[in-house]
Amino acid sequence: MANPTTRVPKMVKDLVTRRQLSPSARPESLTEPQRRALRGILSGEVTPSFTPNLSRAMEVLIHADDTPETVELVGSVIDDPAVTSAERASAAIVLRKSSDPAAARILAENLAVDDPSIRIQVVKSLAAVGTPDQLEKLDEVEAPAGSALEKQVAFARDVIAHRSGMDIEEVSARGVTREPGKPSEMIDLSLRPLTKNALSKDRARLDGTAYMMPIGERGFRLSAGNANWSVLTNDEMLQAGGYSAMFDRSWLTAVLARFDERTNQSHVQYVVLSHPSGQTVRINVFRTDGELMYTGSLKRAKDLFEFVIRDVARKGTAPTNVSGRITKEGPVLDLTVPFGSRTKTRAGEEGVPI
Amino acid sequence: MVNIRTVASSCLGVTGNISINRDLYGYRSRDANGRLFGALVSNDILPATNTPTTRSLKAHLRQISGHSINVTIFMVGLDPVDSTKSTIDVDDYTRVQYAIQVCRDIYAQAGLGVRKLYWRYITPDAAGTYVDIGSGAEATDLTDDFSGPEGDSIDLFFVRSVADPADGWSNELGPCDKDAKDERTGSVCELNPGPSRYIGVLVSHEMGHYLGLGSGPAITNLMGSDVDGDGVDTIGINSTGITATQASKMRSHCSVQAAC
Predict the structure, then answer these.
(1) Interfacial B residues in 164-193 facing A (CB < 8 Å)
(2) ipTM higher than the 0.85 cut
(3) Rounded to two decimals, what is the model's pTM?
(4) In whole angstroms, what is the distance from residue B154 CA to residue B136 CA?
(5) I need a surface site. Which of A97, A123, B88, B203 has the fewest CB within 10 A?
(6) What are the structural domain ranges in chain A?
(7) How do residues A304-335 score in pLDDT, each as one tens digit?
(8) Beta-carbon count within 10 A of B51 CB
(9) Helix, strand, coil proportions of chain A in percent (round to 5)?
(10) Fold of the domain built from segment(s) A10-163
(11) In CATH, what number does B28-251 get?
(12) A260 at the B interface (CB within 8 A)?
């Protein structure tokens, strides 16, 4: 027999029935009746008279009540056959925004979830919040060779290992050396340090995960054509000796948060991983789906350090070479070869085959 | 007087036997019950006729003969071989067809037709995690990775889910170079965020951004209203109005095709 419909607080109804949930509409805290109603909607113990949007309910709960109980409840949606696959995927996605340690454990428990399109979101979220405790379970994930899942698992392992300072297996990809093209083919690229005030604003704009990286007080603005990123660096690394620490162990060195002018928010688009490699430091820039986009190295030099970063040959690459120095004042770009267009983007498949 | 064969030939490149839905409208799917627009709910009505499914072929031909856009539709997550891996089914296709028809009705007010539909799909493995879009940055990644090879269209991606704050993402004044680096070179919409008519409004809204429109003056406007100034427009099933200024701006976008 179905549960009788239950009255829920008006504010909860407004939140979980609205078309879009902007950051300004997300409450920072919940009253007990609101929390109870939201949890009841997720668990199915509360049957409202309207159709609730479970994704909104999960988003609100994780934002305002990021506790082990909430994480457990959201985690239970990942494997719930009674809800839609989109809602199950949303549960996996929302958990990457949690800073509660229970999130990593619960995600790891869902690595064998039946639906591969949800499993890959679970792995992606583990990259954001996982710890070495989950590496063994990641190893057990059966991923077809060359599949998107295999790439995502490798990335999750890599991020966790770098974040924890573990020894790293070399990634074999090599960057491509680019010669400048015609002026019309190129775009402007610049990197400049952020003032304390600007960095503080950029941190406030960041929505969602910073991949469990403590954000340091050194940050930069990277601009390429019309696009802008906040380059947020790892505070633990800076405290451990600044950029010299990159020669001592592997690091999740920085994240690049893409700025969206319309919403005035930013989201992490690239994750910068580094590890010592002989006398140099290997630098790899990954997209959050595990795609290696740029690779390069850092070496000691008179000015402190010299670095070079190149794009990796892949379908849809944006040909880009950057080299420069890290001085006491921060990074200085000496050479930039940023093309304005991607090459050989994929077209998907043509037709309507169903 | 609009002649079907003339429009089919000169605007759509179609000659010989002509199927109205397939060739003139570009609709390719029917659900298990033979419905072009799938299951509709009570408030799913087309903006032009205020009925669930009534269309005017004459009006359609007139619209696509004038200033128009072409659209490359990417269905993200379709596995044509193994349906258990697919996050797309035939109902999604009919839902999208309805959304396009709603969009056609809305854009007709701006003197802008939706002429050609190019249908493409992206397999789950090729799409990877982008079957679900977790942020605006991921919407950019998806449109960066895939571009419709047709040089004369706007890319429109349908994904299973789009995480908050929005049901869709689009640049304001999107580029016509679909390989432009670090731009969002298409519109991204959630497949099933509400009633079929709402998806049509959402599609029209996101492509409206791409065509150069910012936030609108009211919720009854296609571009809705950004009441709290956070960049997220509030829209609903009645967000269908277009002002003369908006219409003029849409028609001046670089992707708009000349009359044929």
Answers:
(1) 164-167, 172, 177-183, 190-193
(2) yes
(3) 0.95
(4) 18
(5) A97
(6) 10-163, 183-338
(7) 999 999 999 899 998 999 999 998 878 889 98
(8) 9
(9) 35, 30, 35
(10) Leucine-rich Repeat Variant (1.25.10)
(11) 3.40.390.10
(12) yes
